[in-house]
Design goal:
This protein has helices at residues 5-33, 63-70, 78-86, 113-121, 127-131, 135-145, 150-153, 156-169. The protein is mostly helical. Among the domains are: 1-30; 95-169. The termini are far apart. The model has no long low-confidence stretch (mean pLDDT 80).
Length: 170
């Protein structure tokens, strides 16, 4: 069996022409058959727009007054920073699991081995810890795990509360 280069080129060009002709024909038929579909005119809705009056700006007259106007607030004192850390949305964390044994957090739908390891790294080892999370705690852990909305979507807190209740009853 011998291959003739001229025949191969001719066959390839005929296939290309058939393909392009099919594309053009298909596009044209689709445009004709679907003309007018999906294009409805919608009546415009008048929405009142409230525009607030711009605040009156007073310009400081002296250079000292201008400088005083641009000075920012001083940095917070260490005591204020410590208070801010106390009210942090970070959930209560443990340095190690209680009694040396962590709960199997993978029982919660949506938590696999990697997320369990990440939670353990954050000091979360037990179902009752997750069950007591507040909305702020959920947001903080969400940011740490980089799974925005996953905790709420998969209802980790509710699942953990139910499992912790069953565990306590047993």
């Amino acid at each position: 069996m011998t291959f003739n280069t001229a025949h191969l080129i001719e066959t390839a060009s005929l296939i290309l022409v058939a393909y392009l002709l099919g594309c053009v024909l298909g596009y044209s038929v689709r445009r004709i058959l679907h003309a007018g579909r999906g294009t409805r005119e919608v009546a415009p809705i008048a929405v009142p727009v409230v525009i607030a009056a711009p605040p009156e700006l007073k310009r400081p007259r002296s250079p000292a007054a201008r400088l005083a106007a641009t000075v920012e607030e001083p940095a917070p004192k260490p005591v204020e920073l410590a208070k801010a850390k106390l009210t942090s949305p970070r959930p209560a964390a443990l340095s190690a699991p209680r009694n040396g044994t962590a709960d199997n957090l993978k029982q919660i739908k949506g938590i696999g081995p990697k997320i369990e390891a990440s939670l353990n790294g954050l000091g979360i080892y037990h179902l009752d810890q997750i069950a007591t999370w507040t909305k702020a705690n959920v947001d903080w852990v969400d940011g740490q795990l980089a799974f925005k909305g996953r905790i709420r979507r998969e209802r980790w807190v509710e699942q953990a509360a139910e499992m912790a209740r069953v565990k306590a009853d047993a």
